Amino acid sequence: MKILTSLLFVLLLSCQNFAQKFKDGDIIFQSSPSQQSAAIEEATKSPYSHCGIIFYENGVPYVYEAIQPVGKRLLTDWIESGVNEMYVVKRFKDSTVLGATEILLLKNYAVSQFGKNYDGVFNWSDKEMYCSELVYKSYWNACHIKLAKTLPLRDFNIDGPIVRKVMNQRYGNEIPYDEPMISPEQLFNSPQLITIN
Question: Of 16, 110, 2, 10, which Cα lies nearest the Cα of 64?
Fold first, then answer.
């Protein structure tokens, strides 16, 4: 019983610490330990391969994200799943644009995507979602905020050995070079975001 009480205290203290630093709508980035993540990092020349949006529920921080399926995880669990538990949090810098109403719309849009399958071929349709697509489309569809410009697949660094291997596995000879895409790196470098942590 004492151990359980101690664990609950640590979780509560952790949530309070996050509450002081992070806000609803903040975007969090990490590197995931997978072959796909290694390919994303190679293709984008970035150490970040996964991202999501932080939202609080009853004072507890979660990350809304596109994995399989699209859903949410406790922020603490999300951080622990990343490489070396390293992460960066960014925030939309114009608080006059992203007020309480917009935050609610943002959250509701993200929730409306829950249950969709993860999009492993990075198609731009709304049928399935990948991580940076969920973040981008949540901000755009809910608040008409365009965090970055989409790029066709051909504009990424797609000649690296890890990228080529993954593309051959996913696409075979039907590589969609002109498919519009958005990467964690593009969001990370958005001039509309400022680094919080």
Answer: 110
pLDDT digits (tens, 9 = 90+) for 113-127: 999 999 999 999 999
The HSE-up count of residue 88 (CA atoms within 13 Å, CB side) is 16
Entry pTM: 0.90
Q: In 10 A of CB 108, how many CB atoms? A: 11
Q: Output the DSSP codes for the chain.
A: -HHHHHHHHHHHHHHHHHHHH--TT-EEEE--SSHHHHHHHHHHTSS--EEEEEEEETTEEEEEEESSSEEEEEHHHHHHTSGGG--EEEEES-TTTS-HHHHHHHHHHHHHTTTPPB-TT--SSSSSB-HHHHHHHHHHHHH----S--EEGGGS---SHHHHHHHHHHHTT---TT-EE--HHHHHT-TTEEE--
Token pair in block for residue 73: 């995880």
Task: Enter the tokens of residue 38.
Answer: 């290694």
- Residue 16 confidence (pLDDT) above 90: no
Instruction: Measure Cα distances from 52 to 30, 90, 145, 170, 197 in Å.
Output: 9, 11, 16, 23, 15
Query: What is the CATH class of 22-194?
Result: alpha beta
